[in-house]
Amino acid sequence: MDIAIHLGAHCTDEDRILRALQGDTKLLRERGVVVPPPGVARPALRKALMAEKNSLLPGGGRGLAADLMNGGTGDRIFLSHEGFLGAYAKVLAGDTMYDDAGAKTAALRDLFPGDRAVFYLGIRNPATFVPALFDASSVDDFETFIAGQDVAQMRWSDVIDRIRAACPDVPLTVWCNEDLPLIWPDILRAISNVDLEHGGDEMILKEIMTEAGFKRLETYLRDNPTPSLTMWRKVVTAFLGKYVDPSKIDEEISLPGWSQDLIAMLTSLYEQDLHAIRMRGDITFLMP
């Protein structure tokens, strides 16, 4: 059985993938894909991880996958939680992002002996990732929140290095949060392993387009079905050029010392990091 695990990262998904796939329950069930409700899966995983940490899980918890199936049948389970790599307070602990990503992913993999774990990870420009993390945290003072971090040294490639070192045999698929509008259907197909149209394919577009523009896009796609995702992207790009809602995509950042020059520098470093990640031979990178 495949255990498809969406690792986050924080502030990149807000359970959208989970909601999209839950909306396709019938389609997925018919193809052997089970999406356990988060209210069931997350407590079970948390309990299993604590038991594993305390060496109370004989044989690695072989029955966990069956428990998550909840009496159903299938050959693929999808699990998603932005906290899989750590709590908000731990994301920037120490002097790097997700310092214990390797240990966290190894623990997840080890919960399912005899099954095949598959990891998925969305990443985001540190220029907007750090402010979003701070906004979502319970810390009031930004200097306290960022203490110990050199933001110019933040590299997602380092996080991926730790995951690969700990779990070299676990397939890992990565994408950029900034590309979501154009690769969302690819993500749903990759995670579900169902290469068909999904009901949630236009979820992200609905979030960022004007209401009138999105309705026009829906009508166009209904009347002119696209034969491939490549053609779908061409149509969507044209509609976004006319009907994107700037208020829904512009991110206003107001933090001490977070100047436009710093944002530009971090963005440039992020683009260099992305190039290095795309060149890796040990991951799958989704892009438009």
Provide structural commentary.
This protein is of the alpha/beta class and 288 residues long. The chain has a single domain, classed as Rossmann fold (3-Layer(aba) Sandwich). The protein is 51% helix and 10% strand. It contains 15 helices and six strands. It has a six-stranded parallel sheet with strand order 2-3-1-4-5-6, sandwiched between helices. Helix 6 runs parallel beside helix 9.
Oligomer: single chain
Query: Segments where pLDDT lies below 50 for 5+ residues?
Result: 57-61
User: Which CATH first-tier class would you pick?
Assistant: Alpha Beta
Largest sheet: 6 strands, parallel
Distance between the termini: 29 Å
> Architecture, CATH level 2?
3-Layer(aba) Sandwich
Q: What's the order of the H and E elements?
A: EHHEHHEHHEHHHEHHHHHHE
Tally of separate domains: 1
Give the fraction of residues assigned to helices: 40-55%
Secondary-structure content class: alpha/beta
The name of the CATH topology is: Rossmann fold
Mean pLDDT: 92
Strand order of the largest sheet: 2-3-1-4-5-6
Strand content: 5-15%
Features:
alpha/beta, 288 residues, globular, Rossmann fold, single chain
Give a quick precis of the structure.
This protein is α/β, with parallel strands linked by helices and 288 residues long.
List the helices and strands and how they pair.
Blueprint: E1 2-6, H1 16-22, H2 25-30, E2 33-34, H3 38-53, H4 64-69, E3 76-80, H5 88-91, H6 101-110, E4 116-123, H7 126-136, H8 142-146, H9 156-166, E5 172-176, H10 180-192, H11 203-208, H12 211-223, H13 229-243, H14 246-249, H15 260-278, E6 284-286
Parallel strand pairs: 1-3, 1-4, 2-3, 4-5, 5-6
Helix pairs in contact: 6-9, 10-13, 12-13
